[in-house]
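Q: How would the structure tokens look for this protein?
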Amino acid sequence: MNQKKRKQRKSGFTLVELLVVIVILMVIGTISMQTFRKEPDKARVQAARTSFSQLETALERYKLDMGRYPAEEDGLAALVSAPDEDDGSWGGPYMRKSKDIRDPWGNDYVLAVPASDGGDYELVCLGADGAEGGEGFNADLSSLDE
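A: Here is the predicted structure in token form.
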């Protein structure tokens, strides 16, 4: 009978062994969550860069119809709805929805006319924080950087 009890004790896990396994799983889970938490922001940065080309195409179509790029005060909203001073040449909407002129974080893209390098225009995404400047995912993205 005594040997039978010893065999039963040896076949199970002790509380300490279970706690060690749980701690190891928690450490692995924490490390993997920190890694995957950064992935959505990486995808948003790539989506913002891709949106620049779509917005540039819409801006070029706008210029073909209107003879100029939208004024800074009209911004990219001029791609979705006709500007107030439209003489009937606006052929839009050039973007389907107003959400198409917002960056992946939900902030408006900034249209600078003329561009900081002297070009016709520059599109700027203010990054995750929605404010000028910043580092990492908060850094500004420019259509001139591509």
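The first helix runs from residue 2 to 11.

Residues 60 and 69 are 8 Å apart (CA to CA).

Upvote if useful.
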